[in-house]
């Protein structure tokens, strides 16, 4: 990785996440192109590029990135609404990083080494990770569907929270095993048991407890087998 690209990314991260107060974000959302905070935010990004390089000789790329940042943030402020705010956040960041990489390539003739995309091991890792997300969630739902307990009086949980918790835990297990940290899998299981089974104990519902236990062990088991199989294939 080129040091110039790293410095440009650091400047962006500091400018967008450390030196942008929530009051500036709200001001941009409300006043859009008339917001002075929009232009102040861009000025901060330009100044940070000078700072991380400790030189004024980078004024061309600093100003160019500043203009690109202004265009992206201006477009975001114009089209943003309550419905699309979350997705636009990620689109905004993808565009910012893409513009940084493109301008780095333009000004410094930099090239990203993407030879790993032609490596079989990379695609095996991607396949294993993808399998442990939605495909495994669907497989588990089919397997334990007949045991879903009927709980009309139970408090409502966050929408799809269980699905995303399962995806996160399986992804972490996958990472732990591939990096040879098996002890972290036990720690994760213990942590989940403390939070999850503590609530179940208070309800005194044996069927619900057994249902959650089956789901947890099945989720962990699939993640462990997938990780060990992946580890064998890339060895």
TrEMBL record:
Pfam families: DUF3307 (PF11750). The keyword Iron-sulfur does not apply. It comes from the Bacteria. Keywords: Membrane, Transmembrane, Transmembrane helix. Coiled coil: none annotated. The chain crosses the membrane at residues 38-55, 61-79, 86-108, 120-144, 172-191, 211-230. This is DUF3307 domain-containing protein. It comes from Pedobacter vanadiisoli. The lineage of its organism: Bacteria, Pseudomonadati, Bacteroidota, Sphingobacteriia, Sphingobacteriales.
